[in-house]
């Protein structure tokens, strides 16, 4: 008995039923085969597809359609064009054989063939068919793998490009913030002590407005670069969205409709609420522009289910969605939407930093952002942020109403001379006794000299053998009642927990206003009076993170 693979599917097309018995008997030695009989030649293609035939035996002479026509039809259909066809005929005529091969037959047998020859030819052609199918499946799998590889390479290239742009923009923002601090600090000092007339004051205010615009631009760049310091706390996102509802409606205008859907069992998230507020507001502004002031803006907040998008790692998330019914984006625009300064808005109507800021903030917060859009059907931005089991906390607010000074002693540590001098000038104008240090090592010399210091105001990134981290630890150890306030125009190498500022630290981002500086200093000094010994935010034996 001849062994054979079980995937040998034989279809016999013949108008004479007795031929089924003859073929079945002839294939007795073909183990594992399946024989299907069809008397109607018109159904040949349909049945061949249904039984996944690996070889078709077709009678040459039939009343309705002959074997030539059946073979032609099988070859014409894409699902059966490669199935081997063996023509069965009682005519041993070379001319008829040639015609059969011309219309696509693979073989020709004269009725009735010896069972051994029948089995051998069926096995041969069926094996060839299976091999072809396996080859085609392999090629199809290879094509899919190549497409997936190309998609992965494209995603990697995009990620590398975004990372490179992020490093560049982060470095530029750092230097830009220092320049803005020099300009803004001296302008503010000029306002305080310059005895300016009204015209000069107006000019100074105009210049300060430009500094504010530059500061916002730098903040957006830092957000995209994932270098902004995040003051993350556990918040209820539903509460945040409800508080933003009136603002959203004012942003969208009277012609737009705002729909808010908040899951009643919505989980908490650990995030910087102010930055999240800015992100949602920017997304709403983009939606308004995309809808030309009308349409429907839908804001959703829900606990994400197990069916997460492919780009979102497994985990428990809260999903925030901002969806509009605007004009949507084509694929080529969608691929570049997160790039900084890329915008489709006319000149003067957008910086191209809204989505890039959202991208950087979400990534830095440990989440993922998914952008989908279809031309004519609108755009959806979904933000996935990790859920937190902790109870939402209340953030201590620092109010800044007016410039408030004092008589305490403040040590200003800053390697940029112009920044240091302008800051020292502002603090001196507010009545403080100010000591200046060019770097942390010089600050340590002043501390070791025994000078009384109420607060250390230090830059984070400075040259020299002593880092700001080490300075903070020494201040906590030797001057436990002294407060410490950090400042930086750049968060790289500063923060811990993937960009989240440690709760024990206090950071004032450059460029800072005199009002903000004065308010933070007074807040910390009063805090030191209420909680003596906790000045530097570094308790004995506690690990201090991130400031290097």
TrEMBL record:
<feature type="modified residue" description="4-aspartylphosphate">
    <location>
        <position position="59"/>
    </location>
</feature>
<keyword id="KW-0597">Phosphoprotein</keyword>
<dbReference type="InterPro" id="IPR001789">
    <property type="entry name" value="Sig_transdc_resp-reg_receiver"/>
</dbReference>
<dbReference type="InterPro" id="IPR005467">
    <property type="entry name" value="His_kinase_dom"/>
</dbReference>
<dbReference type="InterPro" id="IPR011006">
    <property type="entry name" value="CheY-like_superfamily"/>
</dbReference>
<dbReference type="InterPro" id="IPR003594">
    <property type="entry name" value="HATPase_dom"/>
</dbReference>
<dbReference type="InterPro" id="IPR036890">
    <property type="entry name" value="HATPase_C_sf"/>
</dbReference>
<dbReference type="InterPro" id="IPR036097">
    <property type="entry name" value="HisK_dim/P_sf"/>
</dbReference>
<dbReference type="InterPro" id="IPR003661">
    <property type="entry name" value="HisK_dim/P_dom"/>
</dbReference>
<feature type="domain" description="Response regulatory">
    <location>
        <begin position="9"/>
        <end position="126"/>
    </location>
</feature>
<feature type="domain" description="Histidine kinase">
    <location>
        <begin position="171"/>
        <end position="389"/>
    </location>
</feature>
<feature type="domain" description="Response regulatory">
    <location>
        <begin position="409"/>
        <end position="525"/>
    </location>
</feature>
<dbReference type="Pfam" id="PF00072">
    <property type="entry name" value="Response_reg"/>
</dbReference>
<protein>
    <recommendedName>
        <fullName>histidine kinase</fullName>
        <ecNumber>2.7.13.3</ecNumber>
    </recommendedName>
</protein>
<feature type="modified residue" description="4-aspartylphosphate">
    <location>
        <position position="459"/>
    </location>
</feature>
<dbReference type="Pfam" id="PF02518">
    <property type="entry name" value="HATPase_c"/>
</dbReference>
<dbReference type="InterPro" id="IPR004358">
    <property type="entry name" value="Sig_transdc_His_kin-like_C"/>
</dbReference>
């Amino acid at each position: 008995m001849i062994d054979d693979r079980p995937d040998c599917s034989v279809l016999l097309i013949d108008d004479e039923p007795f031929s089924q018995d003859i073929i079945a008997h002839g294939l007795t030695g073909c183990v594992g085969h399946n024989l299907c009989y069809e008397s109607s030649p018109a159904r040949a293609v349909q049945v061949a597809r249904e039984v996944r035939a690996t070889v078709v035996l077709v009678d040459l002479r039939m009343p309705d359609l002959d074997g030539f026509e059946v073979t032609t039809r099988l070859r014409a259909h894409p699902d059966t064009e490669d199935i081997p066809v063996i023509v069965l005929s009682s005519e041993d005529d070379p001319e008829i054989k040639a015609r059969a091969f011309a219309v696509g037959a693979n073989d020709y047998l004269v009725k009735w063939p010896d069972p051994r020859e029948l089995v051998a030819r069926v096995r041969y052609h069926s094996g060839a068919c299976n091999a072809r199918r396996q080859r085609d499946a392999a090629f199809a799998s290879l094509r899919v793998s190549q497409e997936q590889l190309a998609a992965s390479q494209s995603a990697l290239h995009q990620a590398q490009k975004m990372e490179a742009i992020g490093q560049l923009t982060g470095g530029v923002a750092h230097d830009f913030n220092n320049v803005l601090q020099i300009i803004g600090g001296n302008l503010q000092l000029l306002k305080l002590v310059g005895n300016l007339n009204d015209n000069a004051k107006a000019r100074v205010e105009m210049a300060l407005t430009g500094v504010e615009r530059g500061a916002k631009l730098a903040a957006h760049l830092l957000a995209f670069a994932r270098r902004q310091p995040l003051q993350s706390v556990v918040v209820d996102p539903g509460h945040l969205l409800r508080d933003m509802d009136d603002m959203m409606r004012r942003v969208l205008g009277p012609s737009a409709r705002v729909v808010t859907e908040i899951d009643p069992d919505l989980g908490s998230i650990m995030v910087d609420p102010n930055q999240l507020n800015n992100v949602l507001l920017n997304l709403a502004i983009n939606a308004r522009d995309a809808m030309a002031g009308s349409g429907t803006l839908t804001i959703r907040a829900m606990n994400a289910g197990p069916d997460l998008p492919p780009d979102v790692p497994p985990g428990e998330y809260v999903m925030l969605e901002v969806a509009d019914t605007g004009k949507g984006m084509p694929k080529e625009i969608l691929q570049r939407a997160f790039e900084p300064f890329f915008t489709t808005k006319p000149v003067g109507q957008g910086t191209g930093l809204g989505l890039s800021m959202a991208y950087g903030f979400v990534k830095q917060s440990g989440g993922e952002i998914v952008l989908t859009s279809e031309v004519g059907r609108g755009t959806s931005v979904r933000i996935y942020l990790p859920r937190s089991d902790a109870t939402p906390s209340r953030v201590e607010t620092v109010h800044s109403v007016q410039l408030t000074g004092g008589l305490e002693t403040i040590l200003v540590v800053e390697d940029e001379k112009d920044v240091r001098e302008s800051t020292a000038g502002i603090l001196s104008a507010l009545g403080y006794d100010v000591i200046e240090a060019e770097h942390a090592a010089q600050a340590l010399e002043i501390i070791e000299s025994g000078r009384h210091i109420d607060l250390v105001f230090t830059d984070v990134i400075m040259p020299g053998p002593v880092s700001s981290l080490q300075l903070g630890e020494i201040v906590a150890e030797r001057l436990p009642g002294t407060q410490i306030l950090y400042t930086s125009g750049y968060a790289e190498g500063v923060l811990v927990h993937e960009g989240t500022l440690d709760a024990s630290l206090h950071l004032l981002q450059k460029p800072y206003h005199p009002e903000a500086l004065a308010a933070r200093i007074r807040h910390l000094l009063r805090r030191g009076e209420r909680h003596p010994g906790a000045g530097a935010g570094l308790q004995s034996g506690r690990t201090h993170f991130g400031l290097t």
